[in-house]
Amino acid sequence: MAKVLIVEDDIGICETVKDWLENQLHTVEAVHCGEDAIEYLKTYDYDVIILDLYLPDIDGLDILQKYRATGGTARVLILTGRNEVRDRERGLDLGADDYLGKPFHPRELAARLRALIRRDSMNTSTQLIVGKFLLDLTKLKLMRNGEAIQLLPKELTLMELFMRNPDHVFNAEQILQKVWSADAETSPETLRVHIKRLRDKIDVEGQPSAIQNIKGLGYKLSSENC
Questions:
Q1: pLDDT band of 140, cuts 50, 70, 90
Q2: Domain 152-225, what architecture?
Q3: Which of the ends of the chain has fewer CB neighbours closer than 10 A, N or C?
């Protein structure tokens, strides 16, 4: 699962792609003009940017150029109806990672997004294993000692974040930014509630919690307790 920004002025296409990716448990934010895109990219971090070239106010290639010039490192998938080879060449030269022409099926876009995410991951497996836990990223299922644990979408996303980074301490702000969209109404209390629910499902009574609260710092998945 990844944090994705969609920059697309066609609201119908935008909503279709957003719904499709959210169903695959990605955290997705969407904007419909270049100015908003620039502001979001200044403020938030993303794993992948899906960028339409033909926006009403700013050319998508100009946004891409400015983003790369300021050190932006997210993978960029250009999404557009332009079919001219020179536009594709310029986009790739400016730092785009892939190019998808309209019309397209959301399934193809999702497959390309998965490929982009794998480029940044040393672990290209569709499974994450930490101690007794196995998270299947294809089936979106968590197992503990071979038994399935039913998790809600946000709980799965939290578990993926922790299992990709065992023993790493994340503060509340970092987790909220990685797991929730910018327009979601969240607070540290929101996170505490979700962490408690996740612990209730994954922990074994009488044993230390797999997710530890490091006082004053944040939360981590303890590999020792998994």
A1: confident
A2: Orthogonal Bundle (1.10)
A3: C
Which numeric CATH code is attached to 3-119?
Answer: 3.40.50.2300
Residue 76 has pLDDT above 70, yes or no: yes
Give the 3-state DSSP-derived string for the chain, with helices as H, strands as E and coil as C. CCEEEEECCCHHHHHHHHHHHHHCCCEEEEECCHHHHHHHHHHCCCCEEEEECCCCCCCHHHHHHHHHHCCCCCEEEEEECCCCHHHHHHHHHCCCCEEEECCCCHHHHHHHHHHHHHHCCCCCCCEEEECCEEEECCCCEEEECCEEECCCHHHHHHHHHHHHCCCCCECHHHHHHHHCCCCCCCCHHHHHHHHHHHHHHHCCCCCCCCEEEECCCEEEECHHHC
pTM of the shown model: 0.70
